Amino acid sequence: MKAPIAPTTRPLVALALLAPAAVITAAVAPAMWWLAPLLGVALLALVAVDGMLAGRLAEMALDAPADAEVGQPLALSLRARFSRPPAAAPQASLGFATRLGQGGAAQFDLAEEGAAGSWRGQAFITPVRRGTGTVQELWLRWPGPLRLAWRQASAPVEAEVRIWPDLTPVRSPALQAFLRDAQFGMVARRIRGEGTQFEALSEYEAGMDRRRIDWKASARHTRLYARENEAERDNQIVFAFDCGSAMCEPVDGLPRIDRAVSAALTAAYVALKGGDRVALYGFAERPWLLTPFATEPRNFHRLQSAAAGLDYHAREPNFTLALATLAGQLRRRSLIVLFSDFTDSTSAELMIESLGRLVRHHLVIFVTMEDSELTSLAGAEPATIGDLATAVAADGLARQRAAVLQRLRRLGVDVIEAPWRAIGYRLIDRYLATKRAEAIG
Hints:
By secondary structure, the protein is α+β, with helices and mostly antiparallel strands. The protein has helices at 9-28, 35-53, 168-171, 173-179, 215-221, 256-273, 300-308, 319-329, 345-358, 372-379, 385-411, 423-436, and strands at 5-7, 56-63, 67-69, 74-84, 91-96, 105-112, 118-125, 131-143, 149-164, 192-193, 197-203, 225-230, 236-242, 250-251, 254-255, 277-283, 287-290, 335-339, 363-369, 414-418.
């Protein structure tokens, strides 16, 4: 492979020191003026010789996975083979799209392995946005024996990495252990209890609820019979995502929308295991996505693919249009889980009005993440007048936020406000409580 020669910092420092020495020589002994240029030429010759004595690269290759999850480390592996081993460890750098990692560059730590001249190294990057990111170009350089010159090679990579939503909570041992319960097993068992769907008749026994007695069946058989109902299944659950500017703001390094998608997919997986139907809905200034209802756990990958396509929009959401469109698409009472956020009470007015209309016909859960930065600013001890003003402003915003959430609760909206790490599990708890109460259908 072609590997041009480039000087290291050593000859550059030497040339910088040579300049004042040349000035002094010209002042003290003008006849020796030729000495400084001669030393410069000799130094450049040493750089060239050192570069030619450096190792010779035979090949280099990058192994990059085709798929990754947002917020999770992605391992990249580099292999380099030299036909003539280098004098010291090579250095490698990789350039990629910024959605694959902060700064768009990564460094490799190379170590020699196996036969002489074979080097391998790994670099870890953390994708920060969903979508498709490209790995663009790879650079490799290695020094000569005198450390005066680098030989450096570059190669275009043009590999694409698909960045999916983070499903780490779905794969967590705690959730998997919970899903091994009979109610969420691979085979959906009929669960008899206080549900709404008729299952069977059984002979009435002392201690049973008298309200379960089927008087018509009892009259036909001249014995008391009670109804056994099946726990409610086949509910419709819609996870709606505000993809506007507020949800694109980062929380602990990732946009809020990515945290919301991860929590929603975790809850969706539990709902599918429980026999319910799940759809995803995304909107910003207009509706962008409405998936068909997934009915079985094996359809979960369709929800994952659809969630990966939820884009980021730096515009204010149109709640009136989005929620009216969603209500028009639903033909039966459903559980609607809305992930959104707001910065002040004024921007939340339209959201409150639209949710007020929606809650008349559907069960609505509003999910928002705690603003830890706002809480820390409001609770920080002020050291200056500026700090005091910041704390007062932050406290005012926190009070406005609490007032908006209280208004939603008065409308009948179930509100979940929690740190981003907890919203997925809080949502699962609320879904299971709602399902046990038979409040959806």
